[in-house]
Amino acid sequence: MSPITIDGSQGEGGGQILRSSLALSLVTGKAFRIENIRAKRDKPGLLRQHYASARAAEQISNAKTQGIELKSTALEFAPGKIEAGNHSFVVGSAGSTALVLQTILPALAQTSSESSIQITGGTHNPMSPPFDFVRDTFAPVVSHCGWDIQATCNRYGFYPVGGGTVSYTIKKTNTNGPINLLERGPLLFREAYARVANIPFNIAEREIAYLREKLELSEENAKARTIENASGPGNFCMVQLHFENIIETFIAYGRTGVSSERVAEAAVKQIKRYLKSNAPVGDYLADQLLLPICLGPGGSFRTTAITPHFETNAKIIKQFLDVDISWEREDRLSWVVNIEN
Amino acid sequence: MKRLVSIGILGTQLDGPESRKRWEKWRPSVSICQQDDLVVDRFELLYEGKFSRLAKTVLKDIETVSPETSMKLHEISMEDPWDFETVYGVLFDFAKNYPFDPENEEYVVHITTGTHVCQICLFLLTESRHFPARLIQTSPPKRTGVESAGDYRIIDLDLSRYDQLAERFEIEKRDAQALLKSGIDTRNKIFNEMIQEIEQVAIQSRHPILLTGPTGAGKSQLAKRIFELKKSKRGVKGSFVEVNCATLRGDAAMSALFGHKKGSFTGAMEDRDGLLRVGDHGVVFLDEIGELGLDEQAMLLRAIEEKRFLPLGADQEVESDFMLISGTNKNLTKEVSSGKFREDLLARINLWSYELPGLADRREDLVPNIGYELDRFAQDSGRAVRFNREGRDAFEQFAVSAEATWNGNFRDLNASITRMATLTGSKRINLELVHSEIGRLKKSWGKDPVITGNEGLLLSVMGELANQVDPFDVPQLAEVIRICRKSKNLSEAGRRLFTVSRLSKKTNNDSDRLRKYLSKFGLSWDQVVIDSED
Predict the structure, then answer these.
(1) Do A34 and A94 fall into the same domain?
(2) pLDDT in 10s for each residue of chain A, 341 residues
């Protein structure tokens, strides 16, 4: 069978195309060749982040590969048998541990034997899902697709220093029929956190003060804390909304020269936008749910947006799997996605 | 894929501080390992003992930002990191003892940290391949306050684009050589190699140079060029003094060279500085040095060795620090054995000795020199004169041929061009002028040179056209001519020449074949046999 050819420059033309292709190849056992990797980015080709993902995919599948090198803009990947069990990976330059996970998770989660993986790198990076999102928002939903994920953050790794470690145990379980995530259900409670590492504590305190005032949170549901064992400096504030059917995570990162209030305000803005809609699945979660649902029981969900990421992802899935993915707009912030497999 | 190994010196300022605040600052050594498109597999960090704490902090931080990188610390001891000798020595020893494994590893040498002296030494040792590495430079983020690893750049000194640097150096060298050759694009290998060496000697040495070779080979011209080259490189401050020793006799010789005091001999009306004194801090060219008297030779030896001499009639020595270039067309060793030249003086003046080939031995340089002489005429007379095409072809052809012996070397060539350029009424030297000039030259070299053998025979039959015959054809054509001369007529010659092949021909066309063969070289029967009737 000739390998599937993927054009890395389609859609937003970033690293997601590579990760999705690797994940799908691992799951389906189909070989692929990707060209024009990250063609639309300033530094095209594989950066450390993508290199680490490709190597991780190679490692768990004994794949035959060609072109996995830094700055490479084309690679070939032919997976062998998936090796569940213990694996550890490292990503330098504070590359995201979540993105490495994303690449290998579907294959390991479709295997009935349990896997234990440890990833060293960034745990809280802007531009990629934070650890808390993976554990609290993503894992509970995909458990309905038969993916059992237990997540632990042993050490925080902030951009640009990194050096955090996360571990996951992953295995396949049973499902209770198609996914049906159209409503949020009643709001149970809300929590806010602010964290600082190696910078003054009052930065976190001011963020919490802002969040409490704007979101009318009680003292016990809004807490500032110092992280002791992070390598470098870091700060973020996060709000989680616990609905009956979904927990959504909103995060904003502190940056040099940006006041604590401005940081917290960014989180509040995301929440306000989410609350304007009734859709349970936020922008970021939507495209990550596609693959688990396609591989699992199928079904439908309602989301706040169809992003370019989502569309590209859907396209690539259809190159590997015989599924039907369709979506329909109901309202400005409400779309229904249907998946039949 | 080869492992990437980075070698660098701990930047005691730039790689600091040790405090928690360090992450807010760009630190070059750490930044190499923070790049998202570069993975360093091993990092060799050189540090001085007193900075071991900082080195360990940097080590720990690199392990954090780049778990893929293994770290190695090397304690070095540079008492003074601003002292070239120490720093070079320490880094040289490190490079020498480092187990480079270019089969499996590639190396980058980080030149952003360390004192400037460290950076320069690292560059030099990398350029000289003591570090078989490329250079890596890091630079801070363009906008401050932005958390980023900044930039890096890898410089491969072996890459062709850095050849431009080397090339610029080459061009400068070529310019110097061109100056020595008066800008003439000479092609003679021996001459060019000699010029190459003289260039180096002229720039670097102030020792005496001896130029030998036949009259007119360009000795005095070259001496002057050497002076100009030295002057352009600031090797001399003074002026160029040229003396032909053949013109110096008796008291006048002494006085001209070494100077005199007023009244020291008849006719010495004023104090006079000798030429050697005038050449102080400059170059003195003594042409025909073999003609110098023994007394003068003794004085000259002292002047060279002591840089001082006694002018005629003076009671105090004067000093002069000059560089001596001597010229001669004599065999000085022979002169020494016949007692006409001091052995010790010869040993002094021929430290660098070059024999200039005569023009006849540099035939490939004749064409460029013709151009040079025309330019020189234009400069001297203000009249730009060129050959027309036929004139140029004919003259060049003659100039490089065996007929032209160039007994007077460049002096002959110069005179010849000057005559033709002067005689032409227009700005073009035509064929007619060239022919008469060739006649004049031949006459001046005495009777036509005796050229024997096949070449001589062809020359006598064909004149200048003989030079257009390929060496391949020469023996055959010469033999044909000889047989013709032994024969009564064309048919007899034909029969002799085609004695085998004619047997297999139906008709006898020997004379026709011979006529055609001769006409290929522009020859007729009459021309071929005319000489033998003499």
Answers:
(1) yes
(2) 689 999 999 888 889 999 999 999 999 999 999 999 998 888 899 999 999 999 999 999 999 999 999 999 999 999 999 999 999 999 988 899 999 999 999 999 999 899 999 999 999 998 899 999 999 999 999 999 999 999 999 999 998 888 999 999 999 998 888 999 999 999 999 999 999 998 999 999 999 999 999 999 999 999 999 998 888 889 999 999 999 999 999 999 998 889 999 999 999 999 999 999 999 999 999 999 999 999 988 999 999 999 999 999 999 999 999 999 999 999 999 999 999 98
> Is the Cβ–Cβ distance between A240 and A136 less than 8 Å?
yes
B157 pLDDT above the threshold of 50: yes
Range of the domain at A242: 187-275
Q: Is residue A310 part of a domain?
A: no
Domains of chain B: 3-163 (3.40.50.10770), 189-355 (3.40.50.300), 360-444 (1.10.8.60), 453-529 (no CATH)
Residue A247 forms part of a structural domain: yes
How far is A317 from A341, CA to CA, in rounded Å?
A: 12
Out of A43, A92, A232, closest to residue B66 by CB: A92
Shortest CB distance from B37 goes to which of A43, A162, A256? A43
Structure tokens at B532: 């033998």
The DSSP H or E segment spanning B30 is helix B28-32
Q: Nearest residue on chain A to B1, judged by CA atoms? A: A69
A135 shares a domain with A26 = yes
- In 3D space, the residue among A44, A266, A295 whose CA is nearest the CA of residue A145 turns out to be A295
| CATH assignment of the domain containing A150 | 3.65.10.20
Check if the beta carbon of residue B215 is closer than 8 Å to that of residue B287: no
CATH number at residue A222: 3.30.360.20
Same domain, A196 and A162: no
- Contacting residues of B for A256, CB less than 8 Å apart: 24, 145-147
Q: Is the ipTM of this complex over 0.90?
A: no
CA atoms within 13 A on the CB side of A187: 9
- Closest by CA position to A143, among listed A118, A109, A120, A166: A109
**Domain count of chain A?**
2
CB contact under 8 A, A92 and B65: yes
Q: Contact B66/A257, CB-based, under 8 Å?
A: no
Task: Give the pTM.
Answer: 0.60
Contact residues on chain A for B142, CB-CB shorter than 8 A? none
